[in-house]
Every structure is written in structure tokens, then in C-alpha cells.
Design goal:
about 500 residues, 2 domains, six-stranded mixed β-sheet, about 30% helix
């Protein structure tokens, strides 16, 4: 079995993985790194998802990288445009030469005596290999790539039509003129319905419960004006901050004055759909705004489709599938040629890889997250995580900056291990990420726990993380720095 050594291994070549590689290239030029990607191309989510209309659910001035301005006209961008942006970034920073495709990490094993990780890597069509490194940066995202979540529906095998999950969208899928039911009410369903309705015979969005939906222009007029007069990076930075502040204000207002924000969202939706539309039934959830993620529709495309009649929305529960469609608990039936189960994702921590530290298996759910980027008692392992109430990349950029600062600090002080230690503190809560969505509730107990105070509390605040990760010291009383020599001497003394 071949063994290869690098300083840093990045796992995943998606949006966060390519960003991490760029930060390492820019800020730790003396480090040799490799990116291990389980699929045969880069792009992650933005290459995997091929369903009609796939797009960002936040603006690209905050979803884009801090160091690379988003120059596309559309601020709410489609999947191909985002994928092109990731590829262009990789090309500009000469990243692809570091990527090893079709390599899935199954096991990572840490040895304190040598201060190295050993990664067991499954290589498509070949024997497993071993890669060793000093640091691992996991950029695998938070969900399973091989399958999405589909509930158990009674009678589903009797349906004569086609059933599709958006995560496995067939190539060259033809739905022109056909009757389509999209099951779901989240971002994927809300994206699919108006896109498919352009050519389908009719699209019905079947939801068990409503979601808050808000429209915003797909083009950012503020950004367009700035770009005429200012250098690209400055215009991008100002637009980015404007959008960060807007997101933060809406989120904070939703938490502090939920009834007021609920009323405003209701009014905006009613204005789009007209007084005759039953907004109370179809767009007025029982939960408070931002208890689940707000869904964004560019230029009101979903509302336009509903108003035009190319799509309809039904709020009801499924009793069972039939040969011709779906029987609802209300007694109504919906006929369909195609059913799309936009019913959510399956969460998966660290891509499902197993972790061993000095011969001891680590259960991720027993660990405590540290600054949203490390695990207690697990040395030299970093994790890219984003926000649930803002754009994912905002946090990933800050984490990558911090990782580079931490590595450089360890080089300067001749330390080889950095390990978050909880000491005698107790932690009872699972990770709180600020949302109560079904896909989160199903799997959150498999993720790390958190505490009530920093650095063990997971912030959902860009400002707090900016202070902590960009400007805060990498040294605190919970971070233990050591060398392999010290570890060996300690072991011998015992």
C-alpha cells in the first residue's frame, strides 16, 4: 500500500474546499497540501445538483469568496454560473494541480508521538492508499452526497409514473407537457416549481406545511452602481458588507419582533399574489420567522408562476400514492406523470469518515465544537462550517483565515500539536445551529455538542466570528499547544 506525505490535506473540492486551498496558497506558501475529492470533478454541491433552475439561496456577494469579486450580472445566480466561478477561482490560484479525484477518505488516524494523521483513502478502481499529513481540513459540507432524504410513502410502488429525487436528477429529463407534482416546501421545491412550470403541462407544489417565502431582485442595483465608479475589490467589499448588514438586521428583527416580521412577510406575499389568493393557508407557517430558513425567490418567480396559473400550491398531507398520482388525507386526489420528492437532505458529519486518536475511536457526537472549526480532544483537525442564517462562505472564509494564522503561529513557536481541551467543563446540549427544520432535527444528535460560552458556543453571527477568528488571538486557555517530543516524554514518564 503506497504512502504519501503532505503538510495539509483538504478533504473536498467544493466551494469551501477550493476556498480553503486558495487561503493556504496565499497565506501559508511554504506548506505542501493536497485536496482529496471523492468525485471525479470539482464543484461539490454546484456540480452535483443538476435539477431545473438550481441556484443560490443567498446573494453571491456574500456566498462568493472574500478575495474574489463576483462579477456576474445576476446576484442570485444559477448553478452553472456558480460552478464557473469556482472553476475560475481554482484556475487563477493554480489549485487543480493539488486535487486528487476519485479519492474518498474512509478513516483518519492520529498518532501524537509523530504528530501525524494517517488517512485511509479508497481510490476508485484501485487499491486503497495511505496519505499522511500534519493537519486535516475537512471541507465535506454537512449532507450525504450519495442520496437525499425521502420519507416512507404508503403505496409508492403502485405509482405508474416516474419518481425523482432532485439530488439524483436524470440527464436529459423530459417533462414538457406533463403533469408534475413537487413534494416539499423548502428551497429546492420553491426553485423547481417555477422553473419546471415554464414547459411542463402543469406543476403542483404539494406541501405538508407552509414556508416563509420572500422575493428579492436577482440583480443588485447597488452593486451595479458601485462597479461603475470603484475598483472591483472595493465595490465588491462594500456590497458584501451592505448585504451582511441587511441579513443580520432581518434575522435580529425576526428574533426580537417575530410577529411584526411575520406580518410584513404576509403582506409582501399577499401583494405579490393578490387579495384573492389564500396566503393564510399556503404561506403562513405556524413557526416564527427564521426558526427555519427563509426561502428566497428571485424576482418573485414562484409568485408569478402561481398567478399565471402554470403552477398551483396545495397544502395537505399525503394519504397514499395511487397508480395515477397521490391521494390526500382531505380526500382530494392529484394526478401526475412525474413526482419529484424535494423532501430534503440527509445530514452527514465530516463526510462519514471514521476518526481514531492514538488508538481510540472518536464518536463525533461525544466531542464539543471549538470556535465552530475544531473538535475537543482531537488534534490538528479543522472543519469548515458555514452559517444557517446567512451565506455559508462568510464563515468558511473566516475559518480558513484562522487556520492559516494558527498553522503559522505553530511554525513560529515550534509547536506541532494544537488540541482544544474542555477541562472539567460539562456540556449537555447538542449543537444548536439556530434552525428547527426537519432535516436538522432528524440528525443533529450525530453532530458535536456545544457549550453556553465562547469558544464552545457556536455563533450564528458574522460580527462575533469576525472578532474571534480574524482579530482574536489563536492562544486561549482552552487551546493546548505541544510538540511530539513533549508527548513522547510524557508517555515515557507514565
Amino acid at each position: 500500500m503506497s504512502v504519501d506525505h503532505v503538510d495539509v490535506v483538504i478533504i473536498g473540492a467544493g466551494l469551501s474546499g477550493i476556498g480553503a486551498a486558495c487561503h493556504l496558497t496565499r497565506n501559508t506558501p511554504n506548506k505542501r497540501y493536497a485536496i482529496l475529492e471523492g468525485r471525479d470533478t470539482l464543484g461539490g454541491t454546484w456540480d452535483l445538483f443538476r435539477y431545473p433552475g438550481v441556484r443560490s439561496d443567498s446573494d453571491m456577494h456574500t456566498l462568493g469568496y472574500s478575495f474574489k469579486p463576483w462579477k456576474h450580472e445576476q446576484a442570485i445566480a444559477d448553478g452553472p454560473a456558480i460552478l464557473s466561478y469556482i472553476r475560475e477561482t481554482a484556475q487563477q490560484h493554480d489549485i487543480e494541480k493539488h486535487i486528487r479525484y476519485n479519492q474518498k477518505v474512509e478513516l483518519i488516524s492520529w498518532d501524537s508521538a509523530s504528530a501525524t494523521w494517517s488517512l485511509t483513502v479508497k481510490v476508485h478502481g484501485q487499491k486503497d492508499t495511505i496519505t499522511t499529513c500534519n493537519f486535516i481540513y475537512s471541507c465535506t459540507g454537512y449532507y450525504r452526497y450519495d442520496q437525499g432524504y425521502t420519507p416512507e410513502f404508503s403505496g409508492i410502488d403502485s405509482f405508474k409514473g416516474q419518481i425523482i429525487h432532485p439530488q439524483q436528477w436524470p440527464e436529459n429529463m423530459d417533462y414538457a407537457g406533463k403533469k408534475v407534482i413537487v413534494i416539499g416546501s423548502g428551497a429546492t421545491a420553491i426553485t423547481l416549481v417555477p422553473s419546471m412550470a415554464k414547459t411542463a403541462g402543469h406543476v403542483t407544489m404539494l406541501q405538508r406545511s407552509p414556508t416563509y417565502v420572500v422575493s428579492r431582485p436577482s440583480k443588485d442595483s447597488f452593486a451595479a452602481k458601485l462597479e461603475r465608479y470603484l475598483p472591483d475589490q472595493l465595490a465588491y467589499r462594500l456590497t458584501r458588507w451592505k448585504n451582511v448588514l441587511s441579513q443580520m438586521i432581518l434575522y435580529r428583527m425576526s428574533k426580537r419582533r417575530p410577529e411584526y416580521i411575520r406580518e410584513q412577510l404576509f403582506k409582501w406575499t399577499q401583494r405579490w399574489l393578490g387579495e384573492d389568493f389564500d396566503v393564510a393557508t399556503h404561506f403562513s407557517p405556524s413557526y416564527k420567522p427564521w426558526d427555519q430558513r427563509l426561502c428566497l425567490v428571485p424576482n418573485g418567480d414562484l409568485f408569478r408562476s402561481l398567478r399565471k396559473g402554470t403552477s398551483t400550491i396545495v397544502t395537505d398531507h399525503i394519504s397514499s400514492f395511487t397508480e395515477e398520482g397521490i391521494q390526500l388525507k382531505s380526500g382530494k386526489t392529484l394526478d401526475a406523470d412525474i413526482v419529484v420528492t424535494a423532501t430534503g437532505l440527509e445530514l452527514l458529519a465530516l463526510g462519514g469518515m471514521k476518526i481514531v486518536v492514538d488508538g481510540r475511536s472518536v464518536d463525533i457526537s461525544d466531542t464539543v465544537q471549538y470556535k465552530g472549526m475544531m473538535l475537543s480532544d482531537v488534534p490538528n483537525l479543522f472543519v469548515a462550517t458555514g452559517y444557517t442564517n446567512a451565506s455559508w462562505t462568510l464563515k468558511c472564509d473566516l475559518t480558513s483565515e484562522y487556520v492559516c494564522r494558527l498553522i503559522n503561529h505553530m511554525d513560529k513557536t515550534h509547536q506541532q500539536l494544537c488540541t482544544p481541551r474542555t477541562g472539567k467543563m460539562s456540556f449537555n446540549r447538542v449543537m444548536s445551529i439556530g434552525l428547527e427544520s426537519g432535516y436538522i432535527k432528524r440528525s443533529i444528535d450525530k453532530f458535536p455538542r456545544e457549550g453556553a460560552i465562547a469558544p464552545w458556543k457556536l455563533h450564528q453571527s458574522y460580527f462575533l466570528d469576525l472578532l474571534q477568528l480574524r482579530y482574536g488571538s489563536v492562544k486561549d486557555k482552552y487551546m493546548e499547544f505541544s510538540s511530539a517530543t513533549e508527548v513522547a516524554e510524557s508517555s515515557e514518564a507514565v
